[in-house]
Amino acid sequence: VRVRSIRDVAAAVRGRRQDLGFNQAELAKRAGVSRKWIYEFEAGKPGAELRIVLGVLDALGLELSLGPAQASPTTPDAIDLDVLLDDYMRD
Question: Are 79 and 86 within 8 A, CB to CB?
Fold first, then answer.
């Protein structure tokens, strides 16, 4: 999963938790945090402490990997419609 924001991580946590059949209280217990923390995090809590997030990921059997960002695809050069039509008319 490509992560661009804390909301992306929260969505992955929520999805994995649900896939495993855990409710928020069960995940909280496994991760050593409060159910309220899980609830707020899954709702997109800004400023979640990385140490705690990593603990939650570990409790779910998830890991966070970092690598260089992939270059975004470049926009193709603009097409000159006059040239395209000229080529079409010649054929």
Answer: no
Distance separating alpha carbons of residues 90 and 24, to the nearest angstrom: 67
CB neighbour class for 10 (10 Å; exposed up to 12, middle 13-18, buried from 19): buried
Per residue in 11-42, pLDDT (tens digit) is 999 999 999 999 999 999 999 999 999 999 99
In a 3-state reduction of DSSP, which class is residue 88? helix
Contact yes or no for 28/61 (Cβ under 8 A): no
> Can you give the pTM of this predicted structure?
0.72
CA 48 to chain centroid, in Å, comes to 15
How deeply is 17 buried, as exposed, middle or buried, from its count of CB atoms within 10 A (0-12, 13-18, 19+)? buried
End-to-end CA distance of the chain: 47
Q: How many CB atoms lie within 10 A of CB 82?
A: 8
